[in-house]
Specification:
GTP Cyclohydrolase I, domain 2, 5-stranded mixed beta sheet, about 30% helix, elongated, binds the ligand Nc1nc2c(c(=O)[nH]1)N=C([C@H](O)[C@@H](O)CO)CN2
Length: about 120
């Protein structure tokens, strides 16, 4: 198994939803992600440049989420996975997006996707 950098419970507000009333407001989404990479060089060198900086990833994700306009959380997840795979030095990402409160009778709802880096995606 590859090494992992993870981010849990990252919260942002965005325009998301399929219904007309949802297009008029911003709703909270919560993101959990696992970034698959190799960490041995960073562990040996103690150098941030040798790893995936979870602060940089968090800032990039929240910046995108804040200006995004999608209907489905699947679409937000797909777009974010493409950004992460093309802009950061990772081999794969597992991304979970929750939309708390979307179904009042459920504790939580959301999607989880796993995407691998393709040969076209730079690192
Ligand atoms: N699989 C999904 N199901 C639903 C979504 C979604 O994004 N993915 N969205 C909605 C509505 O926008 C809902 O959140 C409104 O409460 C319904 N189902």
């Amino acid at each position: 198994m590859r090494d992992q950098v993870f981010i849990e419970g990252l919260q942002g507000d965005t325009c998301i939803g399929v219904y007309d009333w949802e297009r008029q407001l911003r709703q909270r989404v919560v993101l959990d992600m696992v970034l698959f990479t190799t960490l041995d060089a960073a562990g040996r060198s103690d150098d941030l440049r040798q790893t995936v900086d979870y602060k940089s990833v968090s800032d990039r994700v929240l910046g995108f989420v804040g200006s995004a306009r999608f209907e489905l959380i699947e679409s937000l997840a797909e777009a974010l996975s493409r950004i992460l795979l093309s802009e950061f030095s990772i081999d794969a990402v597992t991304l979970r997006i929750s939309k708390p409160g979307a179904v009042p009778d459920a504790a939580n709802v959301g999607v989880s996707i796993h995407r691998e880096r393709t040969s076209e995606q730079a690192g």
